[in-house]
Amino acid sequence: MKYKLLGRSGLKVSELCLGTMGFGTDNGWGADKDTSFAIMEEFANAGGNFFDTANVYQKGTSERLIGDFISQQDRDFFVLATKYTLKDNQTNPNASGNNRKNMMRSVEESLKRLKTDFIDVLYLHIWDDITPIDEVLRGLDDLIRHGKVNYAAISDTPAWVVSKGNTLAELMGWSQFIALQVEYSLIQRTPERELIPMAKHYGMTVTPWAPLGGGALTGKYLRGEQGRVKAESNRRNENAEKITRTVMSIADELGVTAGNVALQWMRQKGFSCIPIVGATKIDQLKENLKTVDIALTDAQMQQLDEASNIPLGFPGDFFKEDAVKLNSFGGFYDRVEKRK
């Protein structure tokens, strides 16, 4: 794999990120230790250095397995990203949320499980709609100044909150968010309304989770295979099937898997994007790794875009209206189009 810069930083990460939510079996599913180690070894041998985990994945076992593996390797080769926010202690009322107390406690626990002195990228896992954003940013900046964290990032948070945070951080001289993690795929394109344009504006790298729609875009449900995704979800409905059939058709043209096509589509969307590819079997990872060797034509990209198109809503669709409807703006729309 080649390496890319993560957001507006000099941090070099592999062009695919290894998702480790399935490392461990504490939640009744996932990969055991030997399989998890084999997956990490395969990823590293392919040049992969970017691992994504969280304090709550498999009740902490994901971090522990990564720590066991990394302790036998060159720690500085790897870029470890973990998260804090979600509840991981049933007796402490402050063992969840975005507050500073939980942040500091969670980081100390993650460092122990990961068997490391520092976390490369710390994500706020999900916005709690309670904690002031300045409390979050000051806490993250303190962790960075103390050397326990190298970079700050954010996940599953409204665009306006992230925008406010990065603007405040720039004003105050605090560390800014360099990456944004959201659900994004051919069957979940709603981040294109606000989140992805915001990320482009701030120079943030988008690290999509569920880039294969929980496996739906591999075509496994069309083949009758079972999975953890409920049949009535937006990943298993008529629209998802239509999109998946388009993906499979293009995959047949290229002689690759449907998963490769779905992953490459987002890598060619014109913004900094590093998909998080999860795996609980080594064969799954090997197939995903082949993505970096393919390219989609403009016609194939257009075909996928049209099959998965969503309304942008206001003001996105309003901005796309033809010039005739915007004459009252005195040619403003035409001038913008020419600059693009």
Explain what this protein looks like in three dimensions.
With 340 residues, this protein is of the alpha/beta class. 38% of the residues lie in helices and 12% in strands. It is built from twelve helices and ten strands. Helix 2 packs across helix 3, helix 7 crosses helix 8 and helix 7 (238-254) packs antiparallel against helix 10. The model has no long low-confidence stretch (mean pLDDT 93).
Keywords:
about 350 residues; alpha/beta; TIM Barrel; 2 domains; 8-stranded parallel beta sheet; 12 helices; 10 strands
Task: Please outline the helices and strands.
Elements: E1 3-5, E2 12-14, E3 17-19, H1 33-45, E4 50-52, H2 61-70, E5 79-84, H3 100-114, E6 119-124, H4 133-145, E7 149-155, H5 159-172, E8 177-181, H6 195-202, E9 205-206, H7 238-254, H8 258-267, E10 276-278, H9 282-289, H10 298-307, H11 316-319, H12 332-339
Parallel strand pairs: 3-4, 3-10, 4-5, 5-6, 6-7, 7-8, 8-9
Antiparallel strand pairs: 1-2
Keywords: Oxidoreductase
Protein name: Aldo/keto reductase
Domain NADP-dependent oxidoreductase: 15-308
Give the structural class: alpha/beta
The CATH homology group name of the largest domain:
NADP-dependent oxidoreductase domain
Q: H/E element string?
A: EEEHEHEHEHEHEHEHHEHHHH
CATH topology of the largest domain: TIM Barrel
Largest sheet: 8 strands, parallel
Please state how the strands of the largest beta sheet are arranged side by side: 9-8-7-6-5-4-3-10
Instruction: Name the poorly predicted regions.
Output: none
CATH architecture of the largest domain: Alpha-Beta Barrel
Radius of gyration: 21 Å
